[in-house]
Every structure is written in C-alpha cells, then in structure tokens.
Design brief:
Radius of gyration: 20 Å
Number of strands: 0
Largest sheet: none
Oligomer: single chain
Helix content: over 70%
Length: 300
C-alpha cells in the first residue's frame, strides 16, 4: 500500500512540476506588471474613465468604458466603491455597467497569465471580455434606461493600501499582497491539473467536450459556475483541457461564466444589485457565454 501511494505521489508530482515550469513565468510576470499598474496607473485609469462622461459619446461610450475596466487592476470589492463614486458624480449607468462587467472578467494580471494559453486563446479571451462589457452596457441602456440598476448606498468606501511614501516600497508591498492573494490558488490549480492528467482518462474527457462541441460549450459554461475560484488557478486546468481536445469555444464559455459567477464577485454584486437586476445579470452572463462559445467554435 505504501509503495502504491509513493508511486502515485511521484506521478502527480511529475505532472505538477511540468505544469509549474510551463506557466510559472507568466504568473510572476503578471503579478509584477499588475502591481506596477496598480501603483502607478490606477489613478490615471480612473481619471480617464471620469472624462468619458464629458465627451458626449452617447451609447458608444460603453466601448472605452469596457476597455478601461479590463485595464483596471482592482478586484470587485475595490471596483464597486470606485463605481459608486462615479455614480455619485453623475456617471451613466450603462458606462458603469460596461466598466464593472469587463473588470469582473479580466484584469492586467489575468491577461498576462492567459498568455500561457497561446495566442488564439489569449486574443479570444481579451476580445470576448471586452465585447461582454460593451454588451452589458448596451443592455443596461436598453432595458434600464429610465430605471435604477445599481444601489451603491450599502457598500462602504474602498481602502487604499498603496499609501507608502516610498514608491519602491509601495510597489514591493503590492507585489507581496498579490502573491499572498493568488499564490495558494495558483498552486491549487496546478495540483488539480496534475490530478486531472493522472486520473481522468482521455476517452471520458473526449466524450464530454470533444465529440459534441455544442454540448461541450454548454457543459463548460455550467462547470465554470462552481469550479472557478481564482483566475490564475484555472490557467493550468485550461491548458490541460485544451491539450486534451476541448474546443476553443468551450474554453471561451468557461472563461466568461467562471469569473462572472465566482463566489466573491457574486457576493459583492448582490450588495449593489437588487433582485431584478441580479437575475438580469445572471441571465445575461449565461446567455452571452453560450452564444460566444458557439460563435467561436464556428469561426475556429
């Protein structure tokens, strides 16, 4: 029995080590670049977003709002208080919706982690997240033009922890917080990938995701709801799934529903969305994810 356990440990460790070597550099690079943006670029991103309101772009303003949401390095609990301040200053709800939606889906750190998936998956992730933010803003403009969509009154103000007067020390502290916040999930994702490689047969995986692309998209969108814990932690799993034959459309669906329905993000959104708006949000996310997966499969 002990020999069997030792052998299985060696196998799992081998898969773990191979995955770690493949994506560790992306994780480190993502953390460093994300911290640089957070320390030196966060205020500039917020100022640019505020300026959109004054340019009278109309509905087209959801496009730059969505792009700026992706550029924002903040988590959902950091994004909402900023969105609340924008709302208090008269920012349109559709712009805020576009900014928040794309911010939920992608940030500079996760974008760099996703480079490990390859050029095609990387571009699909970026474009689908940007379009999702634009679509969210458009839907809020159409269906909630004369109705309240957000209620920021119950959410407290954001705590800025990048306050050290020495910019270098401030950056080091930010990097340390990012490592602490993502390191465990990153290692856990690699471990899940190693266990998947060792114990899930290619035939069973093929039956779920490869042989039927339509069902694979639906399955990936559904799996994204309970499985997604941390963006960096899912990268090893996605790499292995794509290597096993998962369609790029199924991966796209997973990359949209996962962060959109992550427990921490859902918890924050429940605070600022009423029951009707929250149901609308969930329906939008699921429908958009399935449609995106199907369209990506048709193209690729």
């Amino acid at each position: 029995m002990i020999e069997i356990l030792e052998r299985e440990f060696i196998y799992v460790w081998y898969y773990f080590y191979i995955q770690l070597r493949q994506i560790f550099v992306y994780w480190v690079f993502g953390i460093v670049c994300g911290s640089i943006i957070s320390v030196f670029g966060k205020e500039k991103i917020n100022n640019v977003f505020e300026s959109i309101q004054n340019k009278h772009l109309g509905l087209f303003g959801v496009v730059p709002a969505s792009i700026l949401g992706i550029a924002s390095p903040l988590c959902m609990y950091g994004t909402i208080p900023i969105a609340a301040s924008f709302s208090q200053n008269g920012m349109r709800n559709d712009y805020i919706a576009a900014f928040m939606m794309s911010s939920i889906l992608l940030n500079p750190q996760l974008m760099l982690y996703s480079a490990a998936l390859g050029k095609t998956a990387f571009m699909i992730r970026f474009l689908s997240c940007a379009v999702c933010g634009i679509a969210a803003g458009g839907c809020v403009n159409i269906f909630f033009r004369d109705k309240a969509f957000f209620d920021f009154s119950k959410f407290g103000s954001a705590v800025n922890r990048d306050t050290d007067p020495n910019l270098f020390i401030r950056l080091i502290k930010n990097i340390g917080r990012n490592i602490k916040a993502t390191g465990v999930y990153f290692a856990f994702g690699i471990l899940l990938s190693a266990l998947f490689q060792r114990y899930v047969s290619a035939d069973k995986f093929s039956a779920l995701f490869v042989n039927n692309e339509g069902f694979g998209v639906l399955m990936a969108a559904t799996v994204g709801v309970p499985l997604y814990i941390c963006g960096g932690g899912t990268i090893p799993l996605l790499i292995e799934w794509l290597n096993r034959g998962m369609s790029i459309g199924s991966a796209a669906a997973f990359m949209l529903t996962g962060p959109s329905t992550k427990i921490t993000n859902i918890g924050a959104l429940k605070i600022v969305l009423g029951a009707k708006s929250f149901i609308f949000y969930l329906a939008f996310v699921i429908i958009f994810s399935i449609i995106t997966g199907a369209v990506v499969n048709l193209i690729f």
